[in-house]
Amino acid sequence: MILPEHHCPGCGVAQKASPRYPWHFCQECLGLAVDARGQHLEFANASVSGDLVWRRVGDSDWQNAQHVLCLIHDRPVLVHEARFGGVVAEPVPEIPLTGLSGLIDLRRGGGNKS
Q: Is the Cβ–Cβ distance between 78 and 68 less than 8 Å?
């Protein structure tokens, strides 16, 4: 299967195409993720086996989540665990997000589940 060329929707840098994540941000743009107050966010896997964790830069405690809504370049982004480990950020479609368990929405402030 030949995959189409892919570029980061945040900065335009060329990236390896992925059929599972056809429109994902590069890791450099993921490092620019912020909440509604402009606080920078960090994401990681909780362990070698995965599980997404996040925190605001400067905080010492990591928070568990399955999905986090935040902002990159003032654009809504969904951050989640990649299938075989790692973290992936994808633009949020213009449709309502339903059926996502463990969703943390940081676009509106706070860290409340939506």
A: yes
- What residue spans define the domains of the chain? 6-105
Contact 91, 9 (CB under 8 A): yes
* pLDDT tens, position by position, 21-56: 778 899 999 999 999 999 999 999 988 777 899 999
First-to-last alpha carbon distance for the chain, in angstroms, is 38
Across 68-87, b (16+ Cβ under 10 Å) vs e yields bbbbbeeeebbbbbbeeeeb
